[in-house]
Amino acid sequence: MSKINALTCVGQNDICSLRIVCTMTRDKKHELEEVDKYGNTALLKACYMGNLEAVITLLQFGANVKAVNHYGQNALTLATFAGNIDIIRELLRYCTYKDFNNSALTPALCVATMHQKWALITLFKELEDHSSEDIQTVHGLNCDDIRALFKPPKPVPQKLHKSMHL
Questions:
Q1: Distance of alpha carbon 67 from alpha carbon 126, whole angstroms
Q2: pLDDT of residue 1
Q3: Both ends of the chain: CA-CA distance in Å?
Q4: What are phi and psi of 68, to 5 degrees?
Q5: What is the C-alpha to C-alpha distance for residues 97 and 82, in angstroms, rounded to an integer?
Q6: Nearest CA to 45 among 8, 99, 2?
Q7: What is the pLDDT of residue 114?
Q8: CA distance 44 to 36
Q9: 0.85 exceeded by the pTM?
């Protein structure tokens, strides 16, 4: 039988066991940083799942708020994907918005733009110390570029549409 770890507790939404695991590993911080096959720590997984209680517990026990998974996603980008503003506010108590953006392949503002999370876009723009046009992904896409990618396609004219199905 394998031992229970923080990742398992988060995956099963078992906060009671998570607190026990965190207490038992207080002197072994590396155990809180075990990763799954995607490189997610328990904190990253809790952010992705939108589990505020697990996030608070892990942060209180010293989980690495600056962890990044194999896809270049950090806690803030995953919480943004989940759309959980309470988790985002909690994370920002432990790490600056700028530091989060510097460690991710896709900044939180870009993630919010991709998923059309308007309240988060507003929050992140308020946190910017410069123009949001300067924020871009590692691929050089800014928020305007991302919005353009997600515009609905123009309808194909009916006449052209019929000729395509010969």
A1: 24
A2: 45
A3: 61
A4: -135, 135
A5: 17
A6: 8
A7: 86
A8: 10
A9: no
Tokens of 101: 């953006």
Contacts of 50 (CB under 8 A, 6+ apart): 79, 82, 83, 84, 87
Lookup: tokens for 69: 């998974």
Domain 6-163 sits in CATH at 1.25.40.20
What are the residue boundaries of the structural domains of the chain, listed by start?
6-163
**In the structure encoding, which two tokens stand for residue 83, read together?**
């759309």
Distance CA 90, CA 148 (A): 31
Low-confidence ranges of the chain (pLDDT < 50): 1
Q: Which two tokens stand for residue 65?
A: 């708020």
| Three-state SS letters, the chain | CCCCCHHHHHHCCCHHHHHHHHHHCCCCHHHHCCCCCCCCCHHHHHHHHCCHHHHHHHHHCCCCCCCECCCCCEHHHHHHHHCCHHHHHHHCCCCCHHHHHHHCCCCHHHHHHHCCCHHHHHHHHHHCCCCHHHCECCCCCEHHHHHHHCCCCCCCCHHHHHHCCC
